[in-house]
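Dear colleague,

Following up on Tuesday's group meeting, I ran the structure prediction for the three-component complex that the binding team flagged. I've pasted the input sequences exactly as they went in, so you can double-check that nothing got truncated or mislabelled along the way. The structure tokens for the whole assembly follow below. Feel free to forward this to whoever is handling the docking comparison.

Inputs:
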Amino acid sequence: MVISPVHYIVAPLLAAFAIPLLSKIYKDAARVVPGIVLFYNVIISFVLMKQVLKQGMINEVIAGWQPPWGINLVLTPFTGFLAAMISVMGFIIWLYGFRFKRTLKGGVVKYYEILQMMMIAGSIGVIITGDLFNMFVFIEIVGITAYSLTAFYRDRNGAEAGFKYLLLGSLASTFLLLAILLIYTQTGTLNMAQIAERMPEVSSGIKITALVFFLIALGIEAEMFPLNGWAPDAYEQAPSPTSATFAAVVSIAGVYALVRILFTLFDVAGVHQYLIVMGFVTMLVAEIAAVSQKNLKRMLAYSSIGQVGLVLIAFGVGSPLAVFGALFLMLNHAVIKSLLFMTGSYFIYNSGEKRLEGLNGMHKRLPYVSALFSLAAFAIIGFPPFSGFWSKFYILIAASDQKMIFLIIGILLVTIIELVYYLRSVGRIYFAKEEMQDIAHKPSVNALIAMSFLALFIIIIGIYPDIITGYINQAAAALLDKTHYVQQILGSK
Amino acid sequence: MNEFNELFIKYKDLITLAVYGTAIMLIIIGLYAVLLKKHLVKIVIGLSIIDAGVHLLFVAVGYIQTGTAPIFSPGYENAADKMVDPVPQALVLTAIVIGFAVTALALSLVIRLYKHHHTANIEQIKSLKW
Amino acid sequence: MNPIISILLILFAGSVLAFGIDSINRKWTGWIAFISMLLAALNLFYLAQTSDLVFSLGGVSLKWGFSSLRLYFVYIILILSLLSFLYSIDYMKGKARLGYFYGAFLLTVLGMFGVVISKDFVSFFIFWEIMTWSSFLLIIYNAYYKVKTQGLKYMIFSAIGAYAMLTAIVFIYHYYGTFDIAVAIKGGVFSFENHIFIPLFFALGFAIKAAIMPFHIWAPSAYADSPMSFTAVFSGAMSKMGVFGLLLVLATYYALHNPDAYVFSQILAWLGGITAAMATIYALIQTDAKRLLAYSSISQLGYIVVALSTGTKLGVMAALYLAVLHAVFKGALFMVAGAVEKQAGTTDMTKISGLIRKMPWTFFVALVSVIALTGIPPVGGFVGKWLLYEALITESNNYFLVIVIFFSSTAAFLYAYRFLFGLFLGQEEKETENVKEAPIKMLIPMLILAIVAIVTGIMPGLIFKPAAVAMQEIGFENVNWQMTALSNVWGNQTDLSIIGMFIAAVFVLIFTFLTFKGKKNTRFVGTKDISSSGELWQEGENWTFQQDFYKPFERAAAPLYKYKMNKIWEDLGNALEAFFNFFRRIYTGNGQTYALYVIGFLALLLLFKDYIFK
């Protein structure tokens, strides 16, 4: 069976329009249909991934216009891997949130489900598109859905976080447009492969200016310090499944866009050093800010930013092993951080307390969820034998190959900061005196399945990483092999 | 019509300068509003102005002096090299739509913020910090 | 099946099972844990003829296996853990979160076992971390407030040590292209000439685990506040992981005797010596038996490190011997403290005294262990101390260090006496009237340890034999030893069994004397029973002998107590946290500020773009 990558985008878009109609016929359509669509995405992502690994890159041309004139969707092992990852995470988060707010009246759930699905579809679009402007459009789709979801709870803080996100997001889109404009005037094309081909002819002054605009615009999306003021607020105020989606999907798409443009489009020296330095600063500042947070989700948000910083560092180191480590870390981050948000959400739900005090003595009420939270906390710190260890380990080995001893020491010191606040919260769960005792809201079955699946993944990958390393290896190779990418796309005209 | 074209050719540099200058001025004015005005609505207006500036810049880039619309209509069958670049125009159309959506969303958020905080001063809306 | 695999699997399955079964039937939890530990320990019989296990994981070639040195430590770990699990069944009875406790405990044992059997650095690090975090879970078992202070302190220090090692490990891979420990050592990883930070970072990691000053501050509370059955293993076996690691690091130095490493070993020796002395001084002023033992434990590890760093046959033998002995008597002493805690409700020596009549067997164990600790014949501790002194006097020129060791070893008498007297001797208190002897399941492991201590005193060859084989592995050939005798470089020889028999005879005499004397009708008087002297006991007055036990000494050493390492580290931590708290204010909460950051950063990049990007 041949499936086109277009389905990734078309299916959610169609469903998004169909849901309001369908929910007239079937009341729960808004909840069920996204699941079907996302599951369909999971299936096609596996089919396509298999195909890509067997036959090489898929270059899907839309509406018969060959690149560089038409828009094309590109599925390499790299983009295929990320798309598969996002699809799976999207589906799991849907499963987790299946009964989310089912008690709310007035069809609010409908908006949530539609926006959530659009956000995931947009993120996949960012990843598989081969056209620069198309990428911009998808980033905007992700952005607008994300702003709305951030303000989903119609309270004062939700609106505030949403507005901040929107403010910075608009600035990002402005700079992205400017950068695209600069590139377009110089190369006369928007196709990324062709831009990459023509880039060496562009005068370096304009090239670097465009690069700076890209770095700012995508730095905002990728939560790079000091452009990430929106991130903690948005993570904190969004509904928990959405926070998980931010961590597992949106930030991944942001990092992808940044890396794709830096690695494929530009051939500028100094980018790697820039990524290392800014990645480290991002990580350091985020973890410092996380240590004395009073609010659980805000703490997790800062930790997310820190992880993204580490991903950027790894991409900055730039050797195949480092990119391998970075992709592994992206995968781990998506899995572990969404598990943290999912379990954390149940703590908040149970204690009615967003502050860390809400965790106190939670293991009595939610023993299983507490164990999962601790597992995820250990995994994200990087304790073996959980999956988080391996990604950090590969990144460190890659850094040692470049003799970056201070970088290694820096990363590990920051890890110690990270360890402090995660272990404090684990300690709270198990040993603090709980303040009040009311009826426990036990997690629903679907949420339990979703969380257990993620936990299982953490443990299995931690004990036997070879299951996944083969795919990641090919993905890393595909990202680094720029000439192959250009030739495949332009050669197929 | 011809006179108009002649005028255009005569002051070509000036007009180019004016268009680009306007675009950049718009961006700077917008940035000024976004960074220094305290009122939420003014900030949103600033964002729209920046957008407008960028869109103008796009159109200006694709423009060719005395060019024609990029349509093969009767009388213009062989005018391919005189046509203005259609791509930036298409991009601008898309960008305008997106900008519209973002502005609408922003204004709705402003309304909600005003409802909750009873102020539209961005400096007083910072319950989420640190 | 390969015993390595089966031990690891049994321990892991036991951990999961114990954790799971706790919610079904709390009575079984301890037994399940003990049985899985027993099954794991039974594998010891098959260990000797095991071949190495080589496999690849995540692109890294891992190698597990035994060698004589590793076996030596495996025995310490598994046997002590087995006894401690038996002890735990009754000790933990009635406490909350049993599944959590046993699950984490079994994982800790798994981690320790794994550390020792790893023949490559990656699995070494993996097991090291498993050991660390699972023991962290146990340290915070008792109360939440400890998470914030003590538990975290332990974890932070352990993490510093572990990450220092990790840094060294990835660089070993960079420079030598291998993770194999034996190959790397042969290649000269630890030789100080090539990359000095590698051995230093490793030594840092091990020194932290062995609680060497100035990295010891996690230890007193961690030892004292954990459940005692775990502390017995924690102090007895897990701190030996540091010793094991130091042995590996120093092996190159033993083989080569290069001058750079000499400086290093001197520093290490001095750190060990200072640790021994200071910890002894601190142990003196503790009024809580558990804390006293904790400090004593730190000081004992100081001896071992001193012995290790001499780098001579005798010194290393002393270290290996003391490692076993320390595991034996310190394990026993912590179990004694646990038994007292369980039966009398507290280990505060100012509250209880005179337990000898209530808990005679516990007292016997405590007595033997204390004798071992202070190094008096005929118990095994004497042999260890003897070896240590001989090594220091004859083979190192560091007489000042000898003085320090002598001093701390003498001062150890003081705290050992305080421990013994405080808990078991003296007048009986009303509060302890209903105290009974510890349950049999707690006594058996304690008695076994005490018997081991006695037997090794009379026949030290039992330990010399495996130790000598183990020493071959790190480059000491032809280690001489005798089963029941000690000899020195001057050719004197002492037969220990005679001394042993003599002293045993004295003991029997005293015991008989006491038994007959006990027959007489004696009235035992408590401290508060002072009406005969015309005074009345006031509420809140403490009349036990433990009150100001070593007052003159405390006064004399007062200046020393002022400078606490603990305070320095705590100030550092608080300052850092305050700084972090201040620093995070850059997230002002004002959306406009964030926009300003963006534009400002853009302007910066545009200004310096030609410098940053080329």
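Chain C touches chain A through 60 residues (CB under 8 Å).

Cheers,
M.
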